[in-house]
Amino acid sequence: MNFTPSATFDSSFDPDQLSAIIDLTRGTIGSAYGGSYNEGVTARTVVNVPSGSTINIQNIFGGAFGTQILPPCDVFESNVNYSSNNATVNGAIYG
Fold first, then answer.
1. pLDDT tens per residue across span 27-81
2. What is the full DSSP assignment across 21-64?
3. pTM of the predicted structure, to 2 decimals
4. What is the rounded distance in angstroms from the CA atom of residue 78 to the CA atom of residue 35?
5. Can you tell me whether residue 18 is helix, strand or coil?
6. Quick one: which of 50, 36, 42, 37 has its CA closest to 85?
7. DSSP 8-state assignment for residue 79
8. 67, 25, 74, 75: which is closest to 46 by C-alpha?
9. Disulfide engineering: 59 pairs with which of 11, 34, 40, 91, CB 3.0-4.6 Å?
């Protein structure tokens, strides 16, 4: 991902530089996936539901949602930041 291992351990390194970031601010959707739905490998994902968000959603998946064993559908590190008092999750939040 164009970063050397030593650069990623530097104290000034921002891991968001190599992350898939999703901000859920408003609207109505079924599900949100931080990683792939069916195939792919993502190093790091961040799914944000910021304060003031009015999203109406069934499920939030911080990681990937593989529908079969192969091909790989993985996320190495997933983060879900839920900070809203106005959002509605009708199902569940999966890390």
1. 999 999 999 888 888 888 999 999 999 999 999 999 988 888 899 988 989 999 9
2. EEE--SSEEEEEESS-SSSEEEEEEEEEE-TT---EEEEEESS-
3. 0.81
4. 8
5. helix
6. 50
7. E
8. 75
9. 91
